[in-house]
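Comment thread on ticket #2218

A.B. wrote:
> Attaching the input chain for the structure job we discussed in standup.
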Amino acid sequence: MNKVFLSKKNREIVLKRAEASHSKGWREGIIEVSKEKYFLLVEPELIYSEEEIEKRIKACSNIENHLLLAAEDKKRLIGLIHAFRKSPKKIHHTAEFDIWILKEYRNEGIGREMIFYVEDWAKSNKIEKIKNR
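C.D. wrote:
> Ran it. Output below, let me know if you need it in another format.
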């Protein structure tokens, strides 16, 4: 289900499940964020191609225990959060997430709204504990 809200800078932000069409924006966002020293997600040489990202989006959309949520501003991908339930039975009540948001959109409450969305997803899936990876 999509969620629409106004950021602190009055931008209309849409949260929705990631789609194959987000692969280009995802790759561009990862490249941009990976250049920052403080928020290094992956080594630049390990960034996936658009085709590989598209495959990952399609694979995650077919897995019940994954949530791949995109944040858009005027159809531009500005952030992404990937939450997933841990698989061993012993820790099946827990989930982890990764998140990135483009620098010009930070401190607007977008990350907070994305995490609230993940919390709702977790509750509906009987997940008791969520942590950032």
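A.B. wrote:
> Thanks. Noting for the ticket: The helical segments are 23-34, 50-61, 110-124.
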